[in-house]
């Protein structure tokens, strides 16, 4: 990942490859800091009409050799017809688009901003827009580390350098979540995922603790949900607990992530076309891991425990069957109706384990249902829960993080669809309202030992976790790292 630094020289003196400026207005005009040389500003004003520059947020236009600037070229990026249109979201997306359009070499960004939230959005967007996944590419020689300079109009009281350092920490962990999701499934499986978490936690500046339940411990511990899902694979399941505990009494949030490293559907096998992106079925666990590491590195004043529920859903000779009945960690028996509805089973065991630690809140993150994608489309994740205040806090955090979400209900009338004649509960309801019945199933596991509800929210990120289209704004093609920003916003707000 490139370094992110605060600009200390004037725009005219900066001598790197690409300078990024914003454009806005119905008659596009360049917007930059006050130290843009007059001759450079005049040149831009003269050429903008002829270039038919767009002010649509994220649209870019490249202009080479602008007078009075040492930068090789200028990239103009749209900020909307009115300055400030779209707030931090526009700045984040514009910075990402501009860095991507800049190509190779150093970049300096001079976009208008009013406060530290704006500046953070610019920094995060710039680093997110630079992201590429090259782990599986043949080596092409050493690459020089890229430098991204952000010019700020904020005075020292606003601590712009610290704002950018925080932005870099967040962006680095979002990039790690993306890397995990983008990794080929023959290389990322429960044990290798576990090892990556152990390595990252050891190398992190944050105070982190990692504990691992292997397949033997899961079997002995009564984790029938995740054991059943993973029993068809030659690569057995794991639950990894990753925790950050600052000193003193703090709010304690448990994060539970679905980590199906590849989902064939099991014996209820998916059509081949539906498996194309199933390496991304562990995006929830990736988001949880990245969030806990970032929270520790940022030293947030809240205790966070992540439970990564890792399994591979395969149709092996010992695979789970429709009609099986398993006993979960909390003692409930569950009838399996569809082996392709496996995510809720690993989450339910993870939530049961999380409940045993007595957290103030449980949040689960999962690429759980296609029904949620049908309901909300590919760019919005659904939020459900047993506590309206918590559900609202999550959607508000998502809004601040520029990760679109929408609250969904858990209608009590649909609960009867989970009744089973052979077990305490069936793991799947009717076809209609599939995202909601999945939430209703999970709700049964957000309880303490006395059966009292623990405040819980469920983030169904099936749509926005993996971008099958082209890169747009600060989001690349492939894994997006969605939910990391939302979770960190929520944790920071609690702290």
From TrEMBL:
It catalyses: Release of an N-terminal amino acid, preferentially leucine, but not glutamic or aspartic acids; Release of an N-terminal amino acid, Xaa-|-Yaa-, in which Xaa is preferably Leu, but may be other amino acids including Pro although not Arg or Lys, and Yaa may be Pro. Amino acid amides and methyl esters are also readily hydrolyzed, but rates on arylamides are exceedingly low. Belongs to the peptidase M17 family. Binds 2 manganese ions per subunit. Gene3D superfamilies: Leucine Aminopeptidase, subunit E, domain 1 (3.40.220.10), Zn peptidases (3.40.630.10). This is Probable cytosol aminopeptidase. InterPro entries: Leucine_aapep/pepB, Macro_dom-like, Peptidase_M17_C, Peptidase_M17_leu_NH2_pept, Peptidase_M17_N. The active site is at 270, 344. It comes from the Bacteria. The keyword Protease applies. Keywords: Aminopeptidase, Cytoplasm, Hydrolase, Manganese, Metal-binding, Protease. It is found in: Cytoplasm. One of its GO terms (molecular function) is manganese ion binding. Residues 176-487 form the Cytosol aminopeptidase domain. Presumably involved in the processing and regular turnover of intracellular proteins. Catalyzes the removal of unsubstituted N-terminal amino acids from various peptides. Its cofactor is Mn(2+). Mn(2+) 2 binds at residues 258, 263, 281, 342. One of its GO terms (cellular component) is cytoplasm. Mn(2+) 1 binds at residues 263, 340, 342. Transmembrane segments: none annotated. One of its GO terms (biological process) is proteolysis. Its EC number is 3.4.11.1, 3.4.11.10. Residues 20-139 form the Peptidase M17 leucyl aminopeptidase N-terminal domain.
């Amino acid at each position: 990942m490139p370094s992110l630094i605060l600009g200390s020289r004037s725009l005219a003196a900066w001598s790197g490859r690409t300078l990024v400026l914003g454009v806005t207005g119905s008659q596009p005009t360049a917007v930059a800091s006050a130290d843009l040389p007059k001759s450079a500003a005049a040149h831009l004003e003269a050429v903008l009409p002829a270039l038919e520059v767009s002010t649509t947020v994220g649209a870019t236009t490249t202009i080479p050799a602008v007078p009075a600037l040492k930068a090789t070229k200028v990239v103009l990026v749209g900020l909307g017809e009115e300055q400030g249109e779209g707030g931090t979201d526009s700045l984040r997306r514009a910075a990402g688009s501009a860095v991507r359009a800049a190509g190779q070499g150093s970049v300096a960004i001079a976009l208008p901003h009013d406060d530290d939230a704006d500046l953070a959005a610019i920094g995060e967007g710039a680093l997110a827009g630079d992201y590429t996944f090259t782990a599986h590419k043949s080596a092409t020689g050493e690459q020089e580390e890229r430098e991204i300079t952000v010019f700020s109009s904020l005075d020292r009281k606003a601590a712009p350098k610290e704002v950018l350092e925080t932005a870099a920490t967040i962006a680095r962990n979002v990039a790690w979540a993306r890397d995990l999701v983008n990794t080929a499934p023959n290389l990322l499986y429960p044990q290798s995922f576990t090892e990556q978490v152990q390595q990252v936690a050891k190398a992190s500046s944050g105070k982190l603790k990692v504990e691992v339940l292997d397949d033997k411990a899961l079997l002995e511990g009564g984790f029938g949900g995740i054991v059943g899902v993973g029993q068809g694979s030659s690569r057995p399941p794991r639950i990894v607990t990753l925790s950050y505990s600052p000193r003193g009494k703090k709010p304690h949030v448990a994060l539970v992530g679905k980590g199906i490293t590849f989902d064939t559907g099991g014996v209820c096998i998916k059509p081949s076309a539906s498996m194309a992106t199933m390496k991304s079925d562990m995006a929830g666990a990736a988001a949880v891991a990245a969030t806990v590491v970032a929270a520790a590195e940022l030293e947030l004043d809240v205790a966070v425990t992540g439970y990564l529920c890792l399994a591979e859903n395969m149709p092996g000779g010992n695979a789970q069957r429709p009609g099986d009945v398993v006993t979960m960690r909390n003692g409930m028996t569950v009838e399996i109706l569809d082996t392709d509805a496996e995510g809720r089973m690993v989450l339910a065991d993870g939530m049961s384990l999380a409940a045993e630690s007595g957290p103030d809140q449980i949040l689960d993150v999962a690429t759980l249902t296609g029904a949620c994608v049908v309901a909300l489309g590919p760019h919005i994740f659904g939020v459900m829960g047993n506590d309206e205040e918590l559900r609202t806090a999550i959607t508000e955090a998502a809004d601040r993080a520029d990760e679109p979400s929408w609250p969904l209900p858990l209608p009590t009338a649909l609960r009867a669809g989970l009744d089973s004649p052979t077990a305490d509960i069936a793991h799947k309801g009717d076809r209609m309202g599939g995202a909601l019945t999945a939430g209703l199933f999970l709700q049964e596991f957000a309880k303490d030992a006395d059966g009292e509800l623990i405040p819980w929210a469920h983030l169904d990120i099936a749509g926005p976790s993996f971008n099958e289209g082209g890169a747009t704004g600060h989001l690349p093609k492939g894994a997006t790292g969605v939910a990391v920003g939302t979770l960190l916003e929520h944790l920071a707000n609690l702290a």
